[in-house]
Amino acid sequence: MKRLLICFTTLLLGITVAHAQQYNIHHTDKAPLLTGSADPAIWSKAEVLTDFVFPWNPEAVPATEFRALWDKDALYFRFNVKDDDIQLGGRP
């Protein structure tokens, strides 16, 4: 029984690793300005990640893009998210 459990766990681990995705964060010589608007020349070096899901809900995820870059001083993230239900404080 113990061997069967070990084989089953190994099989599941292999399936999980086979579906894992790698995201590479590229180096930039020029730091992006943190102004809220993205410089296309700088961010074009970054890989775009778009395949987001809600693991708890089968409905489609709003359009979302993630990018990341690094330089000698920092790690930079950029998100573009479409949200049709933005609420700022208070009650909806």
Automatic annotation (TrEMBL):
This is Domain of uncharacterized function (DUF1083). InterPro entries: Carb-bd_dom_fam9. The keyword Signal applies. One of its GO terms (molecular function) is carbohydrate binding. SUPFAM superfamilies: CBD9-like (SSF49344). The keyword Ribonucleoprotein does not apply. Residues 1-20 form the signal peptide. Coiled coil: none annotated. It comes from Budvicia aquatica. Keywords: Signal. GO terms for biological process: carbohydrate catabolic process. Residues 36-86 form the Carbohydrate-binding domain. It comes from the Bacteria. Pfam families: CBM9_1.
